[in-house]
Design a protein that fits this description.
- By secondary structure, the protein is an alpha+beta fold.
- The protein has two domains: 1-29; 32-150, no CATH class.
- Helices cover 29% and strands 31% of the residues.
- It is built from two helices and nine strands.
- It has helices at 2-27, 54-72; strands at residues 32-39, 42-48, 84-89, 102-104, 114-116, 119-125, 131-135, 138-142, 148-150.
- Strands 1-2-3-6-7-8-9 form a seven-stranded mixed sheet, covered by helices on one side.
- β2 (42-48), α2 and β3 form a beta-alpha-beta unit.
- The protein is extended, with a radius of gyration of 20 Å.
- The relative contact order is 0.13.
- InterPro entries: DUF943.
- This is Membrane protein.
- The chain crosses the membrane at residues 7-28.
- Keywords: Membrane, Transmembrane, Transmembrane helix.
């Protein structure tokens, strides 16, 4: 009986370690920007390894927005100062249009110029110069003092 207990405990310990290792590995993988497509003041960024949780996505944006501006000139505000940046999971790469639910980029003149619509995060200007972050169904607002508040659904 004691041997079964120890074996079960050992198995649970190993399983917990594997789950912890996998979770940490997934959480700390660097975000990879695969491609950027710009249409006026709207920018689509195709990514791999984007953070899972909302706070991680917002933190990543705040830490990397200057790099995006420097390297890709994103965001590109229009004459009113509004912009929108949408992050999409790149998945298995570019695909041909399915004519229904794929996102296609007109700046590519090849048959495979679309991706599956898997939006993970967006950043845009709101009223009064506030920045809005959208992740799934959650919307967060950052005011000019950099206070971030989740909007109620």
């Amino acid at each position: 009986m004691m041997i079964k207990y120890r074996a079960s405990l050992f198995f649970l310990f190993i399983l917990g370690g594997v789950i912890l290792f996998f979770s940490l590995w997934m959480a700390f993988r660097p975000v990879k920007i695969v491609a950027v497509h710009v249409d006026h003041h709207c920018s689509d960024i195709l990514v791999r390894n984007f953070p899972f949780i909302d706070q991680g996505k917002i933190k990543w944006w705040l830490e990397n927005k200057s790099i995006l501006k420097e390297k890709y000139n994103i965001p590109r505000p229009d004459s009113n100062g509004t912009f929108m940046v949408v992050f999409w999971l790149f998945g298995d790469g570019y695909i041909e249009s399915d004519g229904y639910d794929s996102l296609c980029f007109n700046d590519m003149n090849v048959p495979k110029n679309c991706i599956e619509k898997r939006r993970v995060f967006s950043v845009e200007t709101g009223r009064n110069g506030n920045i809005l972050f959208t992740s799934g169904d959650a919307v967060y607002r950052m005011d000019k003092k950099r206070n971030i508040v989740k909007r109620k659904n």
